[in-house]
Each structure stands twice: as C-alpha cells, then as structure tokens.
Amino acid sequence: MSKIAQAVMVAACLMGAGAAHAQLGGLGGLMGGGAKNTGGDIGADVNTFMGQSVALSTLASRSLVAINSAFLSAEESAVIKAEQDAINKLTDTNEKQARTAKLYESQSAATKRLVDSGDMKARMASLDSEGRKQIGNALFNFGIGGLQAVELSKTGQSLVSKAGANPMALPKVMPVKDALPLLGKVVSDSGGVMVGVAKLAQGAKIDVPKVSASSKPVEIGAF
What we know:
Layout: H1 3-20, H2 42-69, H3 74-88, H4 93-117, H5 119-124, H6 129-164, H7 170-190, H8 193-203
Helix pairs in contact: 1-6, 1-7, 1-8, 2-3, 2-4, 2-6, 2-7, 3-4, 4-7, 4-8, 6-7, 6-8
C-alpha cells in the first residue's frame, strides 16, 4: 500500500474514534498552526473554526481539481478554473465555504466516475512528467487535508455541543453545523475514492511524498 493510502486510512480510522469522543476536541491547529481557545467567547471560536474550515476545504477541493484536470481537455479545465477564481474573490466566509463545498462535491463525484469507469487507470500511466507530478502532489495535499479534517470535525462537534447548553449561542454556531458535512465528506473520501486513486498512482509508479501530521501543502501548478 502506498504512503498516501496508509495516511488516509489512518484518517478514516481516527474519524471513527473521534465521533465517539467529539466533546474532547478543542480548537486544533490547521496547517501546522495552533489555534487557542478564546476563553469562552464562542463567537471568536466560531470565526477561527470557519477560517480553518475554509482553508481545509479549499485545499481538498483544489487537490481534486488538480487530479481531475489531468484527464480533462483544456476547455473543461478552464471552466473549473474559472469557478475556483470566482470563489477566491469572495470575501464572505460563509458564502466562500458554501461555494467551495459545492465545487468539492462535484469534483469528488467526477473523481469517482473516473476511477469506477476505468478511465483513470487506462490513462494514468501515459501521463507526461508534469501530469505525474501534478497527481502526486495533489494526492499528498489531499492526504494532509484528510488527516486534518478528522481533528477539525471534532472541534466543530465540540463547538456545537457547547452551544447546546446556551440557547443564545445557537445562532452563532450555525455556520459550524453547516460546515461539518463537508469535513465529514473529506474524511470519507480519504478512506474511499482517494485510496483508489492512490493505488492507481502506485501502479503507474507515480511518486507521492509521505504524509505526516507535520506535513505542509505543496504547490500544484495553477491549482
């Protein structure tokens, strides 16, 4: 099994354990940064969480776009790139999260179709050096996102639970509640369709950097 496959399978296992202990999750760091609890200010905690959630969702969606674009025409890739650019220009965090979630869902479904149809397997080995590097780096970045989504999901569940004891705080955590399904989808894909992509990359002898808890995302060309 490739390194990335091992990493995402660990993420899936951690998510299963985390669901049973959701209230133990504090505001964990994303991309290596440690977020601090704000001493009971749930509004500030929600803002921190949403910033982290958008960053993680963007990382995961860009990774999927990079993988899928290796098998698309220039025109098809341009349409997706235009949507990415539009999302990047948004300044409202909640709107950005919603648009990113929609992009992620469509790209996740596209990746699954490529894997299930056999098209990805048939074309993976014939990718040029740039395409192979793109796939390897995208898998690496998605592996980071999958691992971090586990802890961030627990953080979000903890915030929602915390607000349950204070009805006045419930409206403040609605963005968190709305963000949790996408984080769960990232974790699910880490142990599902992305394992399939990783195995195909391994079969095509594509190098994928090892993922660890301290790994930092890498550049993936225009994505």
